[in-house]
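Lecture 7, part 2: worked example. A protein chain together with zinc ion.
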Amino acid sequence: MNFTDFHFDENLKNNLRRLTDSGRLPHAVIIESRSAQAAEELARFLTMLTVCTSDDAPCGVCRECLASHSRAHADVVWLQPENKSKTYSMAQIRSVIEDAYIKPNGSGGKAYVFENADERFKEDSQNAFLKLLEEPPRGVRFILICRSALSLLPTVLSRCTVIRVGGDDIPGEEAREAAERIVSGIVSGDEYPLLLALNVLTDREKADGVFAALRLIMRDGIALLAGAEAIFGAESAKALASRLTKSQILALREPTDRAAALLRQNVNANLTVTWLCGEYRRISWQK
Ligand SMILES: [Zn+2]
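Predicted complex, written out as structure tokens:
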């Protein structure tokens, strides 16, 4: 696996090695990123991996690799919307479905990349695409790039593996633990531990990291309920998913973002935390 020319961090490199070594790199990958550039880079790498026939794919130097690195490989399609609304038309999706069953020109596989998938894929075209995701032809890989995997249909999401890259700072261990305590408080049904856990947010230095971790845990909770994998991997996402409904978890995100904004504006931290505690209680303890 040749990472020359790619700006991947060690974590991502290890993940990619682990997935390919165990033969578990899935046929359908969602790249979730706030950075279009980082996502595009990983997508290009995955297309090289799909078409390269070297034992140590992607080798980065063969004809297949070079062509797909420059987005010019015949077996790699970067699907651009044809209509004015900048979404994929049903005709386009149907032609992808037909094309996927045609053998590749080279000796490797075929790849289809869908950039801005969360905006370009309408619900009906996602549904049309679903069957292909369920039973993909051999050697074919689908790569969906989006800002938030959650904006795709749960049925699509559950058939893909999500890889998150760039533009999204991964909170540290301390922030994760603090966020896990807050989530335990939310699901405990007891006000005191929740308020105690939320107290960390009065420390403005720590608050941003904790909020980021909280959002990731909530996101994972929703993913778990949709049958997809939890990516951030905090244990408390499972607790959240087992105790709350999807709409409750979605509702929790609103006061979370609001409190984060208030604290950034230097609104009284204790008042904000008390308010947030009340909102969490209201949403999560309602029957
Ligand atoms: Zn190669």
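Residues 10-164 form a domain with the Rossmann fold fold (CATH 3.40.50.300). The chain has a mean pLDDT of 90. Keep this in mind for problem set question 3.
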